[in-house]
Amino acid sequence: MRLLPALRPLRAVAVAGLVLFGACGADDTTARSGGGLTVGGLDTEQTLPGGQVGKLDFVGFDGAAGTFAEFAGRPLVVNFWASWCVPCIKEMPAFEQLHQELGDSVGFVGVNVVDQQADAERMVDKTGVTYRLVRDPKSNLLNWFGGIQMPTTAFVDARGKVVKVATRALSPDELRAEIEAIR
Questions:
Q1: Quick one: pLDDT at residue 157?
Q2: DSSP string for 4-36
Q3: pTM for the full model?
Q4: Residues in contact with 100: Cβ distance below 8 Å, sequence separation at least 6, in sequence order
Q5: Which residues contact 123 (CB under 8 A, 6 or more apart)?
Q6: How many Å apart are CA 116 and CA 17, to the nearest integer?
Q7: What gap in Å lies between CA 109 and CA 40, rounded to an integer?
Q8: Confidence at residue 54, expressed as pLDDT on a 0 to 100 scale
């Protein structure tokens, strides 16, 4: 079927929308190695299994630079989310509850992906999360961790090694079990 030239851009938008919304919240878990691709200066050969996060840097919501090395010596949960991702928003209160419960014994980092900062900040206010929040406007960190959709959550052991990456929403019980597995 031939489309009129005026309708071709609409088809492209429709396909992009299906890809975007279809990816958010799909139900699978991945644990795979990188493909040798460099994304935003980050070598994806370092992704799961066994990638070391210590040299990865980020910029917080407050504009302050940081690195994942700040969390050395304790397990770390890295949750990728966006304000438009319904499953992401649904699971954020469970992350906050465990963050409060576990205190400094487990690090939590929320990574906002491809969002306007104002939209992300509204979502933080709505969900009440207080753990470290960073921005990933070009998906460089998400790609490095092997994420293919949101929500994606990476579990890092106390030595800074990525142990598991879940590319789906996690129930509070699943989240607790994954954290216990890296403690």
A1: 95
A2: PGGGHHHHHHHHHHHHHHHHTT-SEEE-----S
A3: 0.76
A4: 130
A5: 81, 83, 89, 92
A6: 18
A7: 20
A8: 86
pLDDT tens, position by position, 37-93: 333 444 444 445 568 898 899 999 999 999 999 999 999 999 999 999 999 999 999
Look up residue 170 and give its two tokens: 């996690």
Token pair, residue 36, equals 């040798």
Helices and strands in the chain, H and E counts:
5, 10
DSSP character for 116? -
**CA distance to 71, 120, 147, 167, per residue, from 29 (Å):** 24, 25, 10, 5
Q: What is the pLDDT of residues 89-136, one digit of tens each?
A: 999 999 999 999 999 999 999 999 999 999 999 999 999 999 999 999
Q: Convert the pLDDT of each residue in 129-168 to its tens digit.
A: 999 999 999 999 999 998 989 999 999 999 999 999 999 9
Residue type at 4 in one-letter notation: L
Domain 5-182 bears CATH identifier 3.40.50.720: no
Q: What is the DSSP string of 133-149?
A: EEEETTSHHHHHTT--S
Q: Residue 56: name the closest of 76, 35, 85 by CA.
A: 76
**Cβ-based neighbours of 89, under 8 Å, separated by 6 or more:** 81, 83, 123, 126, 127
